[in-house]
Design brief:
This protein has 8 helices and 8 strands, in the order ααβαββαββαββαβαα. It has helices at about 15-35, 45, 60-70, 100-115, 145-150, 180-190, 205-235, 240-254; strands spanning about 50-55, 75-80, 85-90, 120-125, 135-140, 160-165, 170-175, 200-205. The strands form 2 sheets. The chain has a 4-stranded antiparallel beta sheet. Strands 4-5-7-6 form a 4-stranded antiparallel beta sheet, with helices on one face.
């Protein structure tokens, strides 16, 4: 099979201005796309919650998006799982089920509840970024129901309050409903006759962890390009090295 006849000469340089114009245009569009609309980062880099779940009946992606919008997750992404009927991956940028104001209210409610117990003070109240638990460390023992009743007066869903760690640590943990649990509970109510099954996986990435991963990925890419440029500069003849470096940067940007 012969694609080009022997002796065929194609004068590419005659149209170099056209090719250079197309190349510069593509590079400019690529650089602009980094700013607007910007990179389409995943949950690992942006932070948020990702759920892979199937349903016990036919549920279309349109129905699922509509249900999520009614629940207040209108910006959530819904992706169908290939070769699996009625199974979806749901991504939302929301990571914490409670706001900063609610975190303040939780601390105030616990402080007020413990204030009525003689000889017991609060050592520390820790609320992780996910907002699905509250870790309470005291100087003495109290009944878990006291803490659960105090949290029950707030607009948060408390599953249970239990002792945490060694009995002598006077530490308690309140389990709250997280973003994933709240979303699955809402879907179970909306699709009562076709409820979701137990999720295949739930992934939570905090904003700070996502930012660290994103920065590390960008740095790794820049370091890789830099070392490749150094290699090309030494490996190629000095007359061709600049062209090789420019071509590599050109392809990487596009």
């Amino acid at each position: 099979m012969e694609f080009f006849k022997p002796g065929l000469v194609i004068d590419f340089m005659r149209h170099r201005r056209v090719y250079m114009g197309i190349s510069f245009t593509l590079v400019a569009l690529s650089i602009i796309s980094l700013v607007y609309p910007g990179p389409n980062y995943g949950t690992d880099f942006l932070g948020g919650t990702e759920i892979q779940v199937s349903f016990q009946g036919d549920v279309s992606s349109t129905e699922l998006r509509g249900a999520l919008a009614e629940m207040g997750y209108g910006s959530a992404d819904v992706v169908e799982v290939v070769e699996r009927d009625n199974e979806y991956i749901i991504r939302t940028g929301e990571f914490s089920a409670i706001s900063e104001e609610q975190k303040t209210q939780i601390r105030e409610a616990i402080t007020a509840a413990v204030a009525g117990v003689d000889g017991v003070e609060i050592s520390r109240v820790r609320i992780p970024d996910g907002g699905d638990k509250v870790r309470i460390q005291l100087t003495g023992d109290v009944e878990p129901s006291l803490l659960q009743d105090a949290l029950g007066t707030l607009d948060v869903n408390v599953l249970r309050v239990t002792h945490f760690g060694n009995p002598g640590s006077h530490t308690y943990e309140a389990q709250l409903t997280g973003v994933a649990e709240a979303m699955l509970g809402g879907l179970a109510e909306h699709f009562a006759e076709r409820p979701p099954n137990t999720p295949e996986r739930i992934e939570r990435v905090g904003p700070r962890a996502g930012a660290q991963l994103r920065d590390a990925a960008v740095k790794s890419l820049l370091y890789a390009i830099m070392f490749i440029m150094v290699y090309v500069a030494f490996r190629f003849d000095l007359r061709f090295a600049p062209g090789g470096v420019i071509a590599m940067a050109h392809d990487a940007i596009i």
